[in-house]
């Protein structure tokens, strides 16, 4: 066999951010694994279910109907001149993507403990595959959004292309959260228990079901520091053809640019001894 | 090409064992956040090298650190101190069935676990037929694995791992799973890879297999390397120290004759039920032994003797073993053993019944399914069509019995 001999050196873990970043190149060797795992997530989800892929539509649709009744008919939350149903849906969609990616990504290492203790592969592949799977659900859920836009006669404009950078950066932010939380969850199971509560609070603290405009001006700065504000507002404004809020999205993007590399380095550092405690 | 496949330099691994909380009140509460932990060194200052192409066994009692070594080499966990250098692609022959997803088909799961083991999709696709054949799951490959029997599950898991191309292969107790035919298939695969130049690191309790598969062995005890050297020496040392040596009976030094090896020869490199098998006993005699009897016994793992081959079955010609090296070959035209794994040992006696030497290290005989039909044994037989009512009368039956015995006599 004329295959080249690659030398790997295994040493005790030590804090080396550059080393972790250079690992990214070896991650490319596992592209097939990432593709297979992501496909597998989507394949498996609706196996042995009657409605199958239909659930990807039904879940956000049901949420949207409930919130529309409660917030628009009962509480009369304003929606910046857009019918409340598409307004809420355009917020629920990116939020669901984020929440699913973070929840599943956080649990990914513990739920694959059997694999983690038996075979080596770059562990970040597990959370990444869940972020990708959540992205596919976002895509499926978007078709409902298209139907809503047609029903409420909201025309699509060129601003829709802004969805691409918004979702891309949101995916990176979700990944950063998932990496940190997954590494913590391996050691402290409190993370998994507390996460749903935190996400619930976080959702109501982000302009998912209400516009940023209704937030008192005094609180506005604090709200904008929440990256999810930038992502949700950005997504909704791009889709519903409202003026894009560059400032809040810039904040969210800046947070992500700083947070993701840090999260990755921290994850790689924790990775070395993950199998001992998972 | 590097000279070494693996280099361990001063490698240690420490685990923290959490102690149950003690004391009361606040101190107990504080221990929730800062539990009392005790250091446990699973591996302590271990250094050894494995040359490229070498086959090394790591033996030792439970808790000696064997599995930790395996986890360290395969990068599942990082060492606490020291350095491990790995030259070449490394694969572990481990059972990956636990990574299967029950709802997915066998085929999908092969792609999944193949990818986890670092194989490319195209590579897996190319090997799919071979993997299916190795696992012996047949048409079930397209059924969800939740419908598999536990044996099929394990075999498929192994089959994937056995097909990873690697320069270094780690083997951890393959024997523990699967039926004997499958184990045999695993061993043949390991042997194949070894012959093609793959470095093999074998971690096992099965000393017979270690001796057979490995040139060198490292004996571990309490996380440290106790001895390192020729596999046969290390294994016999381990047997002595661990009390396994009690099996050893007649001391080799005093006996006038000694069995050196038992080898199996078969026409097509596979030994199978109903096919010819020759068993060669090599011996070394210090003096000429008249009236010798060489007996080979075929036993189950439990030690039950299934049958023997003897130079003096009932009454035969006298056998004289000349001084020096020699060999006795036993042959059967149709092997009666059903597929499986057997221990074959040998005894050299005198016609007077005195045992001269017992070969204490049974050789493993792996029998493949050949002419397998149900029953405890395969019985060589023939058949013909006859006219109804043409039944052998009782004198003929007696005669048939007589020839059967006669055939065993050497002519």
Question: Could you give a short description of this structure?
Answer:
Chain A has 278 residues and is mainly α. Chain A has helices at residues 17-27, 31-45, 55-74, 84-111, 113-116, 125-151, 163-187, 190-204, 217-225, 227-239, 246-271, 274-277; one strand spanning 7-10. Chain A is globular, with a radius of gyration of 20 Å.
Commentary on this structure:
The complex is a heterodimer of chains A (278) and B (411). Chain A is globular and about 65 Å long. The model of chain A has no long low-confidence stretch (mean pLDDT 87). With 278 residues, chain A is mostly helical. Chain A is built from twelve helices and one strand. Chain A has helices at residues 17-27, 31-45, 55-74, 84-111, 113-116, 125-151, 163-187, 190-204, 217-225, 227-239, 246-271, 274-277, and one strand at residues 7-10. Chain A has one domain (30-42, 51-69, 84-277). Chain B is α+β, with helices and mostly antiparallel strands and 411 residues long. Helices cover 25% and strands 34% of the residues of chain B. Chain B is built from nine helices and 17 strands. In chain B, the strands form four sheets. Chain B has a six-stranded mixed sheet, sandwiched between helices. In chain B, strand 12 (289-299) and strand 13 form a beta hairpin. At the A-B interface, strand 1, helix 2, helix 5 and helix 12 of A face helix 2, strand 4 and helix 3 of B.
């Amino acid at each position: 066999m004329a295959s080249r001999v690659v030398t790997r050196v295994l040493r005790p873990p030590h804090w080396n951010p550059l080393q972790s970043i250079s690992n990214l190149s070896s991650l490319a060797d596992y592209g097939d694994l990432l593709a297979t795992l992501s496909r597998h997530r989507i394949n498996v989800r609706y196996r042995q279910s009657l409605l199958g892929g239909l659930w990807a539509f039904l879940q956000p649709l049901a949420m949207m109907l409930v919130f529309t009744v409660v917030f628009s008919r009962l509480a009369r939350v304003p929606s910046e001149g857009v019918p409340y149903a598409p307004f809420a849906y355009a917020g629920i969609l990116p939020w669901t993507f984020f929440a699913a990616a973070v929840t599943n990504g956080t649990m990914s290492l513990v739920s694959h403990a059997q694999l983690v203790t038996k075979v080596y592969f770059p562990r970040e592949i597990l959370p990444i595959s869940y972020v990708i799977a959540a992205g596919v659900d976002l895509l499926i859920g978007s078709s409902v959004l298209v139907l809503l836009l047609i029903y409420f006669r909201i025309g699509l404009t060129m601003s829709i292309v802004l969805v691409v950078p918004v979702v891309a950066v949101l995916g990176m932010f979700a990944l950063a959260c998932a990496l940190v939380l997954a590494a913590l969850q391996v050691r402290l199971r409190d993370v998994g228990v507390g996460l749903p509560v935190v996400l619930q609070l976080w959702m109501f603290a982000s302009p998912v079901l209400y516009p940023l405009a209704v937030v008192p001006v005094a609180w506005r700065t604090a709200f904008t520091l929440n990256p999810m504000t930038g992502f949700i507002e950005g997504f909704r404004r791009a889709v519903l053809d409202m003026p894009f809020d560059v400032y809040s999205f810039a904040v969210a993007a800046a947070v992500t640019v700083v947070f993701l590399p840090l999260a990755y380095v921290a994850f790689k550092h924790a990775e070395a001894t993950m199998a001992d405690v998972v | 090409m590097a000279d070494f496949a693996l280099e361990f330099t001063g490698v240690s691994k420490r685990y923290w064992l959490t102690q149950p909380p003690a004391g009361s009140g606040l101190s107990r509460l504080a221990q929730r956040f800062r539990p009392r932990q005790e250091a446990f060194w699973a591996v302590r200052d271990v250094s050894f090298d494995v040359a490229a192409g070498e086959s090394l066994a790591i033996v030792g009692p439970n808790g000696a650190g064997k599995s930790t070594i395996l986890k360290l080499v395969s990068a599942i966990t990082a060492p606490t101190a020291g350095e491990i250098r790995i030259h070449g692609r490394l694969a572990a022959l481990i059972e990956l069935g636990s990574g299967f997803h029950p709802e997915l088909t066998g085929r999908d799961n092969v792609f999944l676990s193949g990818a986890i083991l670092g194989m490319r999709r195209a590579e897996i696709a190319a090997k799919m037929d071979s993997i299916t054949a190795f696992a012996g799951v047949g048409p079930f490959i397209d059924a969800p694995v939740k419908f598999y029997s536990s044996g099929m599950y394990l075999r498929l898991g192994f089959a994937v791992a056995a097909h990873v191309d690697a320069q270094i292969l780690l083997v951890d107790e393959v024997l523990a799973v699967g039926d004997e035919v499958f184990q045999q298939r695993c061993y043949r695969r390991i042997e194949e890879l070894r012959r093609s130049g793959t470095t093999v690191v074998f971690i096992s309790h099965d000393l017979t297999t270690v001796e057979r598969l490995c040139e060198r062995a490292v004996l571990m005890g309490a996380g440290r390397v106790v001895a390192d050297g020729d596999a046969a020496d290390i294994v016999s040392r381990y047997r002595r120290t661990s009390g396994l040596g009690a099996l050893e009976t007649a001391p080799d030094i005093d006996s006038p004759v000694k069995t050196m090896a038992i080898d199996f020869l078969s026409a097509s490199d596979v030994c199978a039920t109903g096919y010819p098998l020759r068993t060669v006993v090599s011996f070394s005699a210090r003096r000429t032994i008249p009236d010798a009897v060489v007996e080979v016994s075929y036993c189950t793992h439990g030690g039950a003797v299934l049958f023997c081959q003897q130079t003096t079955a009932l009454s035969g010609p006298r056998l004289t073993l000349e001084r020096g090296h020699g060999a006795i070959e036993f042959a059967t035209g149709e092997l009666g053993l059903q597929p499986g794994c057997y221990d074959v040992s040998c005894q050299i006696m005198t016609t007077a019944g005195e045992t001269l030497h017992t070969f204490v290290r049974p050789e493993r005989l792996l029998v493949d399914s050949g002419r397998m039909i149900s029953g405890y044994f395969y019985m060589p037989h023939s058949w013909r069509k006859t006219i109804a009512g043409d039944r052998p009368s009782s004198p003929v039956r007696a005669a048939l019995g007589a020839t059967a015995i006669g055939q065993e006599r050497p002519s």
